[in-house]
Design a protein that fits this description.
three-stranded mixed β-sheet
Length: 107
Amino acid sequence: ILTTEKITISTIRLTLLAGETGEVSITGLPKGYTLEDIIAESGDKKIATIDTAHGIVKAHEKTGTTVITIKTKDGKYQTDLAVTVVGEDNVKFTGISAVLVGVGKEV
């Protein structure tokens, strides 16, 4: 993990199917902070939650978008991760790849 002027993460946006998991990692922390100083909160736990210790984002059955705020326990630094959860009706299979319809992400 790099020492930076703010919290930096591996991605700022995830799109997942309901029930899927994704990963996010902290790539930088302000000087004097460690991973033990980091907490995370989901704006809507019915859409997605995060296991802070392992960086695993879990998409739940409710579709939509929520923001997971990753911050220091003292509240001085924070960053946001936007998580969009789509249902299987948003997936159209085309040969060996699938496209999330209306989301613009190829999987």
